[in-house]
Write a structure and sequence with these properties.
By secondary structure, the protein is an alpha+beta fold. 39% of the residues lie in helices and 21% in strands. It folds into three domains: 111 residues, Translation, Eukaryotic Peptide Chain Release Factor Subunit 1, Chain A, CATH 3.30.960.10; 146 residues, 2-Layer Sandwich (Nucleotidyltransferase, domain 5), CATH 3.30.420; 90 residues, 60s Ribosomal Protein L30, Chain: A. Strand 5 and strand 6 form a beta hairpin.
């Protein structure tokens, strides 16, 4: 699951929206625990659909049919994971096995309940990792819990910079200019320097593609490469947020979990610094019109695209309804018919407007509130 998946779910206009979360354990395929947990939450969802949305049993069966079929999808349950997330709406069915151990729940509302997913992208905490050796390059997008290769990057290989051999093989087989040839054979080691120049040419090509791929990004980029190759790339890098962190494990030499853990270890200090800076900025703005810990003001501001940075307590649930025109919230002490989690809604609205989101322990939230925010204006 990535940013595009969450955006798709957040922008779903069909209703009702059924959201199911459940914890999983490794090896549950043998015990059938996963399908059983899913089945229990589907039963709860059926009751909500019939009661709160007045749907007939036939209509409920049609809506939940793909989720019911998932219980018998043996291939899906074989993959180890800590948590299950299922999303069902008219014309939409998505299911994910994720590295988060969710609390078990079933929610039926006008929107998907996406708040439990945001530890995956807290603070928009995604990053990119470029894995390099002298011949190949691979680009990954990662978060706190997972890392996945970016598809269709088409970096090519260093071999693309070796033209067909002809004439003087020592000079022409390396695809370098006359000036470069002169520097090679009157420089620091002949063909060894020629290989350096070819690697550099390849990295320049990679750098241009990385800049194009990440043109609208500001997420940090780290390198996974032996030091000598990392140095070459850093000298030609054109991406503005290449940070001074480096993974020690090559993508080609590690299992997925170890690779993801090592990458996160490298980039984690960058994000921890961001949290500290955001909290310091809030304290500086506290008492002005640019900051607030009032849930009603924050929920309205998020709906209007005003929230630049949102702090939300991990267990925050603010049930209520939102005026569709003026975006004024009406909070309830407990969940009532037609209520939605307005804290979760504020998170989604902030995410869609490219704001920062920090999910923290309640005691870490400014004023120890459920919500706090810095406004754009």
């Amino acid at each position: 699951m990535g940013i595009s998946d969450i955006k798709e779910l957040a922008q779903c206009a069909a209703t009702p929206c059924v959201t199911i979360y459940a914890p999983l354990r490794n090896g549950i395929f043998k015990t059938k625990e996963g399908p059983v947990r899913l089945g229990n939450q589907l039963k709860a969802a059926r009751k909500y659909l019939e009661k709160d949305f007045s749907m007939s049993r036939e209509a409920v069966n049609t809506l939940l049919k793909p989720a019911e079929a998932l219980k018998d999808d043996h291939f899906f349950w074989k993959t180890p994971a800590d948590g299950l997330a299922v999303f069902v709406a008219p014309g939409m069915f998505r299911r994910y096995r994720l590295p988060i151990r969710f609390a078990e729940s079933a929610t039926v509302a006008k929107r998907f309940d996406l708040k439990p997913l945001f530890p995956l992208l807290m603070g928009n905490q995604h990053y990119y990792l470029l894995s390099l050796d002298k011949k190949h390059a691979r680009l990954f997008q990662g978060s706190r819990y997972a890392i996945n290769e970016v598809k269709n990057t088409d970096f090519g290989t260093a071999a693309d910079f070796y033209p067909a051999k002809s004439g003087d093989k020592r000079l022409e087989s390396h695809g370098v200019s006359t000036a470069e040839k002169s520097s090679i054979f009157h420089g620091h080691g002949g063909l060894k320097d020629a290989q350096y120049l070819i690697t550099e040419k390849f990295y320049r090509s990679v750098n241009e593609k990385v800049r194009q791929l990440l043109m609208f990004e500001n997420a940090p980029l780290i390198l996974s490469a032996p030091e000598k190759f990392a140095t070459v790339y850093k000298n030609i890098n054109g991406y503005p947020n290449l940070i001074d962190a480096q993974s020690e494990i090559l993508a080609s030499a590690a299992d997925e979990k170890k690779f993801a853990a090592d990458a996160w270890k490298s980039v984690r200090p960058y994000f921890e610094k961001q949290i500290d800076e955001s909290l310091e900025r809030y304290e500086h703005l506290a008492g002005s019109k640019k900051a607030s810990a009032d849930p009603a003001e924050i929920v309205t501001a998020a709906a209007n695209g005003r929230v630049e940075c949102l702090f939300c307590a991990k267990n925050a649930r603010l049930w209520g309804k939102m005026d569709p025109i003026f975006h004024d919230p009406a909070f309830s002490e407990a969940k009532g018919e037609g209520d939605e989690d307005l804290a979760g809604r504020a998170i989604v609205e902030t995410f869609l407007q490219h704001g920062l989101i920090w999910i923290l322990a309640e005691e870490a939230i400014p004023g120890q509130k459920m919500l706090a925010a810095i406004f754009r204006y």
